[in-house]
Write a structure and sequence with these properties.
Length: about 525
């Protein structure tokens, strides 16, 4: 199978999504990560659209990339203007980016209702604009906006628009499903027709309005398209763009196309999560290939099957995309799960200790602990069965005061006394609530000895009242998600007292971060100099 070029537009089309915002510095970090992943073309934005974009292109001009070429995005010239007189095109022609992606109209409906340009004039706008940039030495990709709608409306004219780009000297014409209105069969048919009518490599750019963006991209490639535009994690306006995070392994592992090196593909999970973190999004646990649950196994039969031969219940080896097998721990699980989870975490448990851990687990599940979302607490439970477990600190005591004042203000203060490495620490801190105050006081006390714990962020705090345990009164279950910017983990606490439950989850979260473990993707991230800027 041939080579397919991956074209990432997370930084331009992806940024059209709700709540998406990145600084120029953050965008540079994204570009470096996409380069590491082996993405061939990275569309950075629209130079000249605002000062922030200008700043980004200035910064990118000085960044050396191993694999990727940077693309600048722009539109065909305005009507009644020479291409050489069009301010935006001049900026693209003089910029550093070796590739320019030009978008232009293809659909009569848009010409009539939106731009009010004649069909002939539109063809001239495409031809001139592409030719102007090609003569300036740029490689030009022509993005045919609303191509599939236009093709269904008037196939002859839609193909004429592509031919105009070809005459101008474009190196690729990309068919865009801008409204996300097309289905895989329609995309396949139109792509095949274009490939027989236009003498240029063809690309595909789809949106996910019909939940078909990935399927449409694959359909186009199977007809002979050799470039796929999309975004990481499928970010983008409305329901999002085609998800490159899925398209890449689909093409490479399932269809046998070559896109990136195997080592690059193995970074997929880490890089997909990195981009979520930068956008302040929680990685979707159910995301194909890279989600935490993508290779999760629950229940005795599945776990036994996977242990015997992973192919029994897995469509691929999770390591190929840098993910790992997750054995979901639940009331259904047995000793096999405990032993294989322990192995994954690098913990050696003999049969006897595994059996003991399982008893502890069952007893805790009965009290309301739920480890499916609390991998950190579960790992600690296993570690506590070994001789190597060392607590982060010893608690002498804590006190939390909540004061409500006449003016309505609520003030919370926590005081904590702990022993760390034989030394006693006493700290007081204020917070916007009891958990926050306790967290600050505790970290204030242990940070001298463990400075890296300062970087951990508590990203999510969920409380549930469990009343399913009749006769014992209601208990509170706290689930806490934490992150060090690269990895995410969950911890749990259960108690009749909400502060005690929160404390338990908090301590597990920090203790988990403190445990020794084999670092993989995270170590390269820490040495990334861009991270410190
Ligand atoms: Zn788009």
């Amino acid at each position: 199978m041939g080579q397919v070029l991956l074209y990432d537009t997370s930084l331009r089309d992806g940024m059209q999504g709700q709540g998406m915002a990145l600084s120029a510095q953050e965008k540079v970090r994204v570009v470096r990560k996409l380069d590491e992943l082996g993405i061939h073309l990275i569309e950075a934005g629209f130079p000249g659209s605002n000062p922030k974009e200008m700043e980004l292109f200035e910064m990118l001009a000085g960044v050396e990339l191993r694999n990727a070429d940077v693309c600048a995005f722009g539109m065909t010239r305005r009507r009644d203007t020479e291409a050489a007189e069009d301010e935006a095109l001049r900026l693209l022609a003089s910029g550093f980016a070796p590739v320019v992606t030009l978008v232009g109209k293809t659909w009569g409906l848009h010409l009539e209702k939106v731009t009010k340009v004649s069909r002939e004039e539109n063809l001239a706008m495409i031809r001139d604009s592409v030719a102007y940039l090609a003569e300036a030495g740029k490689r030009v990709i022509y993005d045919a906006e609303h191509f599939f709608d236009g093709y269904r409306d008037d196939p002859w004219y839609a193909v004429e628009c592509l031919n105009a780009a070809a005459e101008g000297g474009a190196e690729n014409v990309t068919l865009c499903d801008t409204n996300g209105s097309s289905l895989p069969g329609q995309v396949a048919e139109a792509t095949a027709a274009v490939l027989s009518a236009v003498d240029l490599p063809v690309g595909i750019h789809t949106h996910n309005d019909l939940e078909c963006a990935v399927a449409n991209s694959l359909a186009a490639v199977q007809q002979g398209a050799t470039l796929v535009q999309g975004t990481m994690n499928g970010i983008g306006e409305r329901t999002g763009n085609a998800n490159l995070t899925s398209i890449l392994p689909d093409l490479q592992l399932k269809l046998g196309y070559s896109c990136v090196e195997d080592e690059q593909l193995a970074r997929l999970t880490g890089i997909a999560h990195f981009i979520d973190e930068l956008l302040n999004l929680n990685p979707d646990p159910d995301q194909p290939f890279v989600g935490r649950n993508a290779f999760a196994h629950k229940g005795g039969m599945h776990v036994a099957g996977v242990n015997a031969d992973a192919r029994t219940f897995e469509h691929m080896d999770p390591a190929e995309v840098g993910n790992e097998r997750e054995m979901v721990v639940s009331e259904l699980s047995g000793k096999g799960t405990v032993i294989s989870r322990a192995e994954q975490a690098g913990i050696r448990l003999d049969d006897e200790r595994a059996a003991k851990a399982l008893r502890t687990l069952k007893e805790r599940e009965h009290r309301g602990y739920h480890y499916e979302a609390a991998d950190a607490s579960f790992e600690l439970l296993l570690r506590k069965e070994t001789d190597e477990y060392e607590p982060l600190f010893r608690l002498e005591g804590f006190r939390v005061l909540v004061e409500k004042r006449e003016d309505g203000k609520v003030v919370t203060e926590a005081t904590i006394k702990v022993w760390v490495d034989g030394e006693r620490y006493l700290r007081t801190a204020e917070g916007n609530g009891p958990v926050n105050a306790l967290d600050k006081a505790l970290r204030g006390a242990i940070i001298d000895r463990h400075p890296h714990l300062a970087d951990i962020e508590l990203t999510n705090y969920k409380v549930r009242i469990l009343d399913e345990h009749h006769g014992t009164g209601a208990v509170t279950r706290v689930l806490l998600d934490s992150s060090d910017g690269e990895r995410q983990w969950g911890s749990i606490g259960v108690s009749e007292n909400i502060i005690e439950a929160s404390w338990e989850a908090l301590v597990d979260s920090l203790e988990y971060a403190f445990q020794p473990r084999q670092e993989s993707a995270s170590s390269s991230e820490r040495t990334d100099p861009a991270r410190t800027t």
